[in-house]
Amino acid sequence: MRVGIIGIGNMGSNLAECLSSKNVELALYNRTRHKAEELGRRLGARVYDSPGELVENVDAAIAFVTDDHALKTISLETASKLERAGSTVFINASTVTPTASLEAMRILESRGIGYVEAPVFGSTDEARECRLISMLSVRHDLLDKATQVLKLYSSRIYYLGEPPKAMVVKLALNNIALAFPAILAESLMLLSSWDVELEWLRKVSAGTWIEPVLTRYWDRALGESSPRFTVNNAGKDYSCIGIALREKGLPSFISETLSSMYLLAGNSGLGRKDYPQIVKFYLELAMKKNVEETAK
Ligand SMILES: NC(=O)c1ccc[n+]([C@@H]2O[C@H](COP(=O)([O-])OP(=O)(O)OC[C@H]3O[C@@H](n4cnc5c(N)ncnc54)[C@H](OP(=O)(O)O)[C@@H]3O)[C@@H](O)[C@H]2O)c1
């Protein structure tokens, strides 16, 4: 099978390693071409100049791009440059709003390209080791082909019916999964601002249900960690959740707050850092306030 990856960022590059280990014939496209070239050389994968050209030359293209805007851009570029659609399927594994997923489906299907909505749970390690959890929404006639491709990189596949159901479940999961570092950031900011040693949080929570959650994030937040999922992408996911709720006329208290927390830290220079590192931004805020108070 010939499989293309569109978007060679943290996820796309690790997915490429996985697919290469399965001996699929691999093709790559990245907006910033040079970022895909070294990987292409190493894995023996051809790098294409446009997503349309890539889609024409593969059986399935998997998109791992940032957000609504990126998905729309590559869908339009694919649809406009395509000369023959063949039986290629376009698998969107990016996390976007349900409305953006439906729009990508409309754009691509207007040119005869089968659209598969398949966001994933799991991160770069799971992508590299071909054990992502895939949520799948697709027209029934494309189900077998989509499943065949997803099996290459997923340890579990859940079929949820037609788009955008899979995207809604993905957003609902991330609403829970990405919340803790933001809550930790506020708790540590509180301790620091009142001159309480941060370690007390760990000591007092020992043996309670909070301890394993704190342990999971402590070093990743306060030490150095390579980016698996970025601060900017966490802010983007909460924006998607807020938009999806507001489009249904519902309040979005948590997602709006958490998107602001992540995006504020992202805009201060931490945007490409691993998302638990937002803790450092809020600790720094507390420290700056402490210095100001002492100076008064
Ligand atoms: N990392 C994770 O753990 C994880 C897990 C599950 C789902 N996801 C989702 O998967 C997607 C990719 O995540 P990632 O961590 O790989 O992100 P990333 O490292 O930031 O990579 C983003 C990719 O999107 C491309 N891109 C951005 N804007 C574009 C545009 N306007 N047109 C075309 N391409 C564009 C970038 O190209 P350039 O190199 O040119 O900037 C890059 O290849 C996101 O939707 C994310 O939420 C991530």
Draw up the topology in text.
Elements: E1 2-6, H1 10-21, E2 25-29, H2 34-43, E3 46-47, H3 51-56, E4 60-63, H4 68-81, E5 89-92, H5 98-109, E6 114-117, E7 120-121, H6 124-128, E8 132-138, H7 143-153, E9 154-159, H8 165-177, H9 179-193, H10 199-205, H11 210-222, H12 231-246, H13 253-270, H14 278-295
Parallel strand pairs: 1-2, 1-4, 2-3, 4-5, 5-6, 8-9
Antiparallel strand pairs: 6-8, 7-8
GO molecular function: NADP binding; oxidoreductase activity
Organism: Thermosphaera aggregans (strain DSM 11486 / M11TL)
Protein name: 6-phosphogluconate dehydrogenase NAD-binding protein
Can you describe this structure?
The chain is of the alpha/beta class and 296 residues long. It folds into 2 domains: 2-164, Rossmann fold, CATH 3.40.50.720; 178-295, N-(1-d-carboxylethyl)-l-norvaline Dehydrogenase, domain 2, CATH 1.10.1040. The protein contains 14 helices and 9 strands. It has helices at residues 10-21, 34-43, 51-56, 68-81, 98-109, 124-128, 143-153, 165-177, 179-193, 199-205, 210-222, 231-246, 253-270, 278-295, and strands at residues 2-6, 25-29, 46-47, 60-63, 89-92, 114-117, 120-121, 132-138, 154-159. Strands 1, 2, 3, 4, 5, 6, 7, 8 and 9 form a 9-stranded mixed β-sheet that branches. The model has no long low-confidence stretch (mean pLDDT 96). NADP nicotinamide-adenine-dinucleotide phosphate (NAP) binds next to α1, α4 and α12. Keywords: Oxidoreductase. Pfam families: NAD_binding_2.
